[in-house]
Each structure stands twice: as C-alpha cells, then as structure tokens.
Amino acid sequence: MTETESIVYDVVVVGAGPVGENVADRTRAAGLSTAIVESELIGGECSYWACMPSKALLRPVIARADARRVPGLGHLVQGPLDTAAVLAHRDYEASGWKDDGQVRWLDGIGADLYRGQGRLDGPRRVTVTGPDGVRRVLTARHAVAVCTGTRALLPDLPALADVRPWTSREATSAKAAPGRLIVVGGGVVAVEMATAWQALGSRVTLLVRGKGLLPRMEPFAGELVADALTEAGVDLRTGTSVTSVTRDNGTVVAVTDSGDRIEADEILFATGRVPHTDDIGLDTIGLEPGSWLPVDDSLRVQNSDWLYAVGDVNHRALLTHQGKYQARIAGAAIAARASGVPLLETDPWGAHAATADHDAVPQVVFTDPEAAAVGLSLAEAEAAGHRVRAVDVEFSSVAGAGLYADGYRGRARMIVDLDDETLRGVTFVGPGVGELIHSATIAVVGQVPIDRLWHAVPSYPTISEIWLRLLEAYRG
C-alpha cells in the first residue's frame, strides 16, 4: 500500500526549469516556504535540450564564419569543424545531462525539491509520487505556480512514431552528425539546427511549408538567412509540405505534396510547440487538460485567486529569457499578495505587471547571419492601428561593419511611432548583431524619444554606429 504524506507550504511550484527555479528563488527571497516539483532534470528544457546545447553547437559555426571574413585570418579556418570536439563541448554545456549542480543551487536558496510527476488535485493541492513510492500531498497556503513549459508538436502523419523522428531534443543531443538530415519547418529551431548540422557535416534538406523563413520577423530577416543557408549548401525548398514519412532499413523516406521523394538518415520536425499541461491534473480544477493557461499581467490564471502559469505554458512569449522575466514578476506578485498588499502595481511597467510581454519581447536567432528583433514588426504595428514609419539602413553604410567582416552583409530597420516619435520595434540582421539587440530593447521599453536617442552617440568604429545611420535616415 502506498504511503501518503501531507505537507503545507506557502508556495508550490510545478516544473523546475529556469522559470520554475526563478519563481522559487523570488518567493524564497521574500521569506515564503516553497516546494518545487520536477519529473525530469532540474534545469529543464533550456539547460539540456534547447538554449544551452543548441548554442554550444552553433557558436563554433558562427565563429568560423566570422573568421573566414577577416582578411589575413580566413585562410587559416578553411577546413571542416572538429565535430567530435564540438559535440564534446556541447555535452559539457549540457552538464552531461546530469542535474547535480542545479540541485545544489535549489538547496542553496532553501527550496524543497520533490522528484516525480506533479499533478493538481483540486484547489491549492499538488500530489507527487516520488521514487521512494511515497505519495505526497503538497498544499499551498498562497499560490501554486505551473511552470511546466511546452513540448514539441509533431504532425499528424500515418505511423510517424515508427519512423522515430527527431524533435528539438534529439537535434540538440545527437551523438553524431547524420550523413543526411531532413529538417521540416521554417522557424527558429529549424533554421538554427539546419545551420548547425550542415556545418557539422550533414547534408541538410530544409522543407518549409510557407513562403519563407522566420515568419514572425521582418521579411528581410528570413530572406538573408535563407540566402546564407543556401550558400552553405542547404537544399532549401519553400512552399513544400510533407505528406508521408517512412523508415526502411534505417533510411528515412519523406514524400512531399509535389511528389518528391527525399531520402535521409534522420528527419527533424520543428513544426511548433504545445503546452505541457495534458497530465498535470487541470481537470480537477475545471480546466481543459492540454490547454494553454491564459493569465493576467501578474501571471495569475484568469478566474483564479491562487493559480499562476508562468513561462511558455501561458503562450505569451515562448522564450527562456522572457519566462524568467515573468518568473520575477510572478514571484513579486505572489509575495505581495501573501503579505496582504491591498493593491498591486499592475499599471504599465509596474512591479507586478509583465508589460514587456505585450510589445517589447527581444529575440536572437543564432544563424549566420544572426537575426535579432525586439518589439513590433512593421506588419504588426500597422495591424495594431499604430501610425508608423519603417526606416531601413544597410550595414554597408557603417565603417565598423567593414572592419568586423570583409563584405559584411546586413540590414537594420526601426519602426517609428509618428505620433510620439518613439520606437515600436527594431530588427537587425547581420554578423554579431545579437549583441546590439539589448540597446534596442532599452529604447523600446524606455519609450525613448527620437530627439533623445539623437544624443546617444555610438562609439566609432563599431557596428553600433548603425543607430546613427538609422536616425539620420529618419531625420532626412
């Protein structure tokens, strides 16, 4: 017979990825007793199957590409990458898929860790059966925070499970480069993994259902990345859907809607994400299992006074850094409500409002060239009814770009609100632009007027001088 143990905490966090860890950190810092529940590795998707391993795979690719464009250096880096060394460093950055360090960190902040599947069991209750067979009922005095994230969405194709397709997990943790790889999708995971594995020795075929890549960014971002992937040897096919996939004697065969038959050693589906909420007991509190959890700006689930949904699971911004931002907001809101604060600071940019989720979300795509954006694209700004003007400048106009790389190719766009002359969005595409995006984020979040930006003088000669070129183009 399974033993049952009941324990009461101020806060129970379900999911110990970066988001859950940060909720626990903030509530513990506020003096609240906190339990955190995790069924897999502490540190979550980002640490082991997403951000860290993918960037470890991509960093040598981008560094080699940059070096090849530097006069006097390019001839030294013409050979192939040392794939074994790259994979070994990837393993190191993923901590060998062991979470000892993350566990020590949780111990350090004083949060109690429970390993096992956490499930809601009515209001303020979470059950978890641990490896020891004990069923524990964790009751929260103030809040339960669901931080379970998302999992890969696979298409509804016949017998797909028999093919054993890659998702982002397999793509970031593979032990060797497949000789031939099909990548299905046109978003961030698809283009980053196509970039990485092509450079590591795979022959990559990239199948994109839509017209181009990176559809959530400005069109020129996807166009420049597509050009670079094609130049690198990727077989890029747009307007193409997969109608069937089989595996025969180890060979994957994908058939497209045009009747093409493509053979490969592996196939990666990077076709979206779904919320990891199908098995966490949502039905016990009247919510639909497998659904996204809509929240207010304090990250509290709608129509609830105790349930919070933080990170990807609320579908506001599926990015680790944005989820950690939400976690800081949620932790502050939970602590404030627990202490009896009568009115939270939920006005725009208040301490308890995740305002940046609405119109100031930054993102970097680590391809060659990099693509980085924050805020609204031109299409999004116009659809929202803003009176705006797009200002475009090529990086070739910046002396620092030519010093950074011979033949530097890139483009920048800022979206100016014509009513108050602040920025609604900024997009950069080019080598090294990921390090520019925080300046743009500050300008967008701070609603810095153009007249004030004019006095923020960029250092010469750096690629950040693109700001001066954008402002000059706007002023005419």
Automatic annotation (TrEMBL):
Enzyme Commission code(s) on record: 1.-.-.-
One Gene Ontology term of the molecular function aspect: oxidoreductase activity
Highest taxon, organism lineage: Bacteria
Keyword DNA-binding appears in the UniProt entry: no
Domain Pyridine nucleotide-disulphide oxidoreductase dimerisation, chain residue ranges per copy: 361-467
Domain FAD/NAD(P)-binding, first and last residues per copy: 9-321
Cofactor(s) of this protein: FAD
NAD keyword on record: yes
UniProt keyword terms in alphabetical order: FAD, Flavoprotein, NAD, Oxidoreductase
Membrane-spanning ranges: none
SUPFAM superfamilies: FAD/NAD(P)-binding domain, FAD/NAD-linked reductases, dimerisation (C-terminal) domain
Family membership: Belongs to the class-I pyridine nucleotide-disulfide oxidoreductase family.
Name this polypeptide is given: Dihydrolipoyl dehydrogenase family protein
Lineage of source species: Bacteria, Bacillati, Actinomycetota, Actinomycetes, Kitasatosporales
